[in-house]
């Protein structure tokens, strides 16, 4: 079977990455167990890097980007999936090492898919997408380390108006935590309060790394910024505070000291959504379906047609996207 479909295809000429929409057929798709009709994808920070040829994330061109998608199974050589099943894919280096969700058809390994969680439709699942899934993994990491809404204090979310940050603020607030949201954009303050933030912090207040310890402020933190922000946040953690490190929107370095670990027993937990094991994925999606307030998810979501995605890829790298970008692939 070789249905024709549209896809955004990246190519590389003279080390410059170019993008164009092409008509492909299913014969063009890479090998895999499951053929999926992609309905929705999203724009994550990593998609922005890939669309702009940054970070050497894509090594082989031509390439179809899109690190996540939701859609419907067309055919499957694996017994787990049958035509008509609704599925979700995040991670596994799809959209970077394998063709991704910016085409109307995708062929992938069955192991990379999860069934669409009960309680979410395909568009809602991608309004959450990789970024929101990562936020839930970060919340689960804080819980596993004993952080609880019963504790006295706030959980800090950095890069709060971005994709990971917005969903993290919303989940934490719904779970009963007091949430401090750090942002560099004054125009997002009302939006962050609507998502449940009780305190708003200017992100410029979180960059001083000159002292290894500062006054204790946070019981937990979810950081999507890295660099001086993460180093500063570590120095402000309360005794036995826990930081979930998710991202590097401000830089991949960590210019701090080990003093917060040694004198306050601070714990720094890494969050990886890409190779996350299946059982954890299922648990995270079940919780997202139950615990993320859908009205807040809607407020955090901007819908964009796939044909219009390119300028948004530049905006996300400049930190100019509020919340989540849902890409309409059909
Ligand atoms: P977004 O661009 O939507 O959000 C990032 C936010 O970080 C921005 O909105 C902005 O928030 C803040 N920010 C941007 N630049 C800077 C800067 N120079 N200094 C300080 N703050 C800055 O991206 P995503 O939410 O999609 O991703 C966030 C990060 O998480 C990325 O680094 C991404 O690669 C990573 N990530 C990691 C995953 C994992 O598995 N570990 C999975 C998904 C994402 P504001 O305007 O509020 O200040």
CATH architecture of the largest domain: Alpha-Beta Complex
Beta percentage is 25-35%
| Structure summary, number of beta strands | 15
What value does the average pLDDT take? 96
Bound molecules: NADPH dihydro-nicotinamide-adenine-dinucleotide phosphate
Uncertain residue segments: none
Tell me what you see in this structure:
It is globular, with a radius of gyration of 20 Å. The longest helix has 23 residues. The chain has nine helices and 15 strands. By secondary structure, it is α/β, with parallel strands linked by helices. Helix 1 packs across helix 9, helix 2 crosses helix 3 and helix 2 packs across helix 7. Helix 3 links the parallel strand 8 and strand 9.
Quick take:
The protein is α/β, with parallel strands linked by helices and 330 residues long. The protein has helices at residues 45-51, 122-144, 163-174, 189-195, 227-235, 259-264, 278-291, 294-299, 309-317; strands at residues 4-13, 16-25, 34-43, 68-76, 86-90, 105-108, 113-115, 154-157, 178-183, 199-202, 218-223, 237-245, 267-270, 301-305, 324-328.
Please describe the topology of this protein.
Blueprint (H helix, E strand, L loop, with lengths): L3 E10 L2 E10 L8 E10 L1 H7 L16 E9 L9 E5 L14 E4 L4 E3 L6 H23 L9 E4 L5 H12 L3 E6 L5 H7 L3 E4 L15 E6 L3 H9 L1 E9 L13 H6 L2 E4 L7 H14 L2 H6 L1 E5 L3 H9 L6 E5 L2
Parallel strand pairs: 8-9, 8-11, 9-10, 11-12, 12-13, 14-15
Antiparallel strand pairs: 1-2, 3-4, 3-6, 3-15, 4-5, 5-7
Helix pairs in contact: 1-9, 2-3, 2-7
InterPro entries: Acrylyl-CoA_reductase_AcuI, ADH-like_C, ADH-like_N, ER, GroES-like_sf, NAD(P)-bd_dom_sf, Zn-ADH-like_protein
Protein name: Oxidoreductase
GO molecular function: acryloyl-CoA reductase (NADPH) activity
């Amino acid at each position: 079977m070789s249905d024709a479909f549209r896809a955004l295809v990246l190519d590389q000429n003279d080390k410059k990455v170019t993008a164009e929409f092409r008509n492909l057929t299913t014969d063009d798709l890479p090998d895999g167990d499951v053929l999926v009709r992609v309905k929705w994808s999203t724009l994550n920070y990593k998609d922005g890097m890939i669309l702009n040829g940054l970070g050497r994330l894509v090594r082989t061109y031509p390439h179809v980007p899109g690190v996540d998608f939701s859609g419907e199974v067309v055919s499957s050589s694996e017994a787990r999936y049958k035509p008509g099943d609704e599925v979700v894919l995040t991670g596994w280096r799809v959209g970077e090492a394998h063709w991704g969700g910016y085409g109307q058809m995708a062929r992938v390994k069955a192991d990379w898919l999860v069934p669409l969680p009960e309680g979410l439709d395909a568009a809602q699942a991608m309004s959450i997408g990789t970024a929101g899934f990562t936020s839930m993994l970060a919340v689960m990491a804080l819980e596993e380390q004993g952080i609880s809404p019963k504790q006295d204090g706030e959980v800090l979310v950095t890069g709060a108006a971005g994709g990971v940050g917005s969903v993290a603020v919303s989940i934490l607030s719904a779970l009963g935590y007091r949430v401090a949201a750090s942002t560099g954009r004054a125009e997002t303050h009302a939006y962050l309060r609507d998502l449940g933030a009780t305190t708003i912090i200017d992100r410029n207040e979180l960059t001083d790394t000159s002292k290894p310890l500062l006054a204790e402020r946070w019981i937990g933190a979810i950081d999507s910024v890295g660099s001086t922000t993460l180093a500063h946040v570590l120095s402000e953690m309360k005794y036995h505070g826990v930081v979930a490190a998710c991202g590097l929107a401000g830089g991949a370095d960590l210019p701090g000291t080990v003093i917060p670990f040694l004198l306050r027993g601070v714990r720094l937990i890494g969050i990886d959504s890409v190779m996350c094991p299946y059982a954890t994925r299922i648990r995270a999606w079940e919780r997202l379906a139950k615990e993320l307030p859908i009205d807040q998810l809607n407020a955090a979501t901007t819908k964009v047609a796939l044909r219009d995605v390119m300028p948004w890829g530049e905006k996300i790298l400049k930190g100019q996207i509020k919340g989540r970008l849902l890409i309409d692939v059909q």
